[in-house]
Write a structure and sequence with these properties.
The complex is a heterodimer.
Chain A (H helix, E strand, L loop, with lengths): L1 H28 L13 H9 L2 H32 L3 H6 L8 H12 L4 H8 L19 H25 L2 H10 L4 H16 L1 H12 L3 H6 L7 H10 L5 H30 L1
Chain B lengths: L1 H25 E3 L9 E2 L2 H5 L6 H34 L8 H5 L2 H14 L6 H20 L5 H12 L4 H30 L2 H7 L6 H10 L3 H21 L12
Helix pairs in contact in B: 1-11, 3-6, 3-8, 5-9, 6-8, 6-9, 7-8, 10-11
The chains are: A mainly alpha, B mainly alpha.
Chain lengths: 277, 254
């Protein structure tokens, strides 16, 4: 009896909310429920794809996720590689610092570093490198997402760096390197042909997990993003809270698409993960 | 040499956000484009300890919510993950889905139910909303504890006559202590860092530290936002200094 109750509790706490949420959003998006319901219609789905910036928002989310990931992987691979060859304990300790930052606070800090009224701009003006705020390049609330990317790198690259280092030691990279050097390869060959593929393959589930997180980032683009293009999480929350009631079913439709994308990526993660085990 | 410079620049950039929030929390007046403000003050910090301080009460509220969420998730995560690990191991993976959907989107999809059951705008609602994705995380993390050795140990204890309570009190809990501790801290931190769903379901009425910090940002009051940030980050830094390893276990279940 207790066993059954425990399993039931698991389903109530994990599966039921997803089913309820997705079901509600799906019905709302096809006009079956909600304040403006008028029976089954695909009008809102059409509207989402053709008359709103939802497709751009999805594309922008993918782009920001992809760019963040490239930067994060690049930095963490390089730094973990240097740490392996010449450990700097002080640097390794500092890598833990960003892990103490909530995303919202990291975004807030980077706003005051990169914005035209921020520290870098003030520094450049005081030192006479630029003569006024208008000369300072736009790095927050910008189309390229420089602010978002910087904050993502600050938040995630240290964690990746630490884990790559941990994985490299587990895979006995220093020993492997000695063997490969004895066999005549140089260190850049070893880096490109052994280190990078090995570390990326071994940490693939972890990378997929963070891809999903980055795709669903909310606090950072909320503070540092632009109103157009915007990330999909911002699109959904903004459409949902607007006073135009016709926008709500569109937001639900986008939430359904987003959820299915995440469920798809998660399924890949689970598959990958069980293969690793 | 160039690598050394790169390390120093990166180290500086890693520390800079911390310096910024401390700096902002001490600035009194900062006009024009000066790098250094006209004056510094400890007043914001001193006000924290007065009885009607907004930030002081937000700190206590965040502490309360995060502790409740972490305690619930760790306790029930332990009991349920045991059951699943022993009998329905495959189902554990279902916990990935609620954990990975962005909390704020999950919240918007479920907002109707929260309104329907009067859970919007109160602490109870925020607790349930946070549990929606933190509890699955605890299941994922704690399910890694149940390896074959532990399972055999549990069977052995039962065979030797231990009842269920004794099994937990004398065998399983003592053995799982490090896992339970890490799970508690990680769940606490996820809740401590949360903004999106807390703001959405709390409708801005449940003013945790993150919600309060965002309010200050919107009011264009970077000084108090800086102070709120310090209140959020400093306790975690103390935790980091005390036990660095906890921070590595964020993705233990992978």
């Amino acid at each position: 009896m207790i066993k059954r109750l425990t399993i039931l509790l698991f389903f109530i706490l994990t599966v039921l909310p997803i089913v309820l949420g997705l079901g509600y959003s799906l019905f709302y998006s096809v006009g079956m429920i909600g304040l403006m319901n008028k029976g089954f219609t695909l009008e809102y789905w059409q509207k989402m794809f053709l008359a709103t910036d939802a497709p751009e928002s999805f594309a922008y989310s993918f782009l920001i996720t992809f760019l963040s990931l490239i930067l994060i992987l690049g930095f963490s691979l390089a730094f973990s590689w240097w740490q392996i060859r010449k450990p700097r304990k002080w640097f390794n300790n500092l890598l833990f610092l960003p892990l103490t930052f909530p995303p919202l606070i990291a975004a807030f800090s980077w706003f005051y570093i990169l914005s035209p009224g921020g520290l870098i701009s003030r520094f450049l003006i005081q030192t006479g490198i630029i003569s006024g705020v208008e000369e300072f390049p736009r790095m927050v609330n910008d189309t390229l997402g420089i602010g978002i990317l910087s904050t993502h790198v600050f938040l995630v690259f240290p964690l990746f760096g630490i884990l790559f280092l941990h994985q490299a030691n587990k895979e006995r990279i220093p020993d492997l390197m000695q063997v490969s050097q004895t066999l005549g390869s140089n260190s850049s060959q070893f880096f490109m042909q052994v280190y990078v593929p090995l570390i990326l393959k071994k940490t693939a589930p972890f990378i997929i997990l963070y891809t999903v997180f980055l795709f669903g980032a909310f606090e950072v683009p909320l503070l540092l993003g632009k109103s157009a293009p915007r990330m999909i999480t911002i699109f959904i929350t903004e459409k949902m809270s607007k006073f135009n009631l016709m926008d709500i079913p569109v937001a639900h439709a986008a939430a359904v698409v987003y959820s299915f994308l995440v469920i798809g990526m998660t399924a890949i993660l689970i598959r990958k993960n069980s293969l690793e085990i | 040499m160039s690598k050394k410079v790169l390390h120093i620049i990166t180290a500086f950039l890693l520390v800079l956000p911390l310096l910024v929030i401390v700096y902002l929390s001490l600035v009194y007046r900062w006009a024009g484009q000066n790098l250094v403000p006209e004056s510094f003050t400890f007043d914001y910090w001193k006000d924290l300890f007065t009885l009607n301080s907004d930030l002081g009460s937000s700190f206590l509220l965040s502490l309360f919510i995060s502790s409740c969420v972490a305690l619930f998730s760790t306790t029930f995560g332990f009991l349920i993950s045991k059951q699943l690990a022993f009998e329905n191991k495959k189902w554990i993976k279902l916990a990935y889905f609620p954990y990975l959907i962005a909390p704020v989107v999950f919240g918007t999809m479920l907002q109707f139910y929260f309104n329907r059951f009067n859970l919007s705008g109160n602490i109870g609602g925020v607790l349930i909303a946070q549990l929606l994705f933190i509890f699955p995380y605890s299941i994922l993390l704690l399910s890694t504890f149940w390896n074959d050795r532990i399972k055999q140990m549990a069977f052995q204890a039962s065979t030797l006559g231990a009842n269920n309570l004794e099994l937990y009190r004398k065998v399983l809990v003592p053995m799982a202590k490090p896992w339970l501790f890490i799970c508690f801290v990680q769940c606490f931190l996820i809740s401590w860092y949360e903004y999106g769903i807390t703001h959405l379901i709390g409708v801005g009425k449940v003013k945790t530290l993150t919600v309060q910090a965002m309010l200050f940002v919107k009011e264009a009051n970077p000084f108090l936002a800086g102070l709120a940030s310090c209140l959020m980050v400093f306790p975690v830094i103390i935790l980091l200094v005390a036990n660095k390893r906890i921070f590595l276990r964020r993705t233990e279940f992978l």
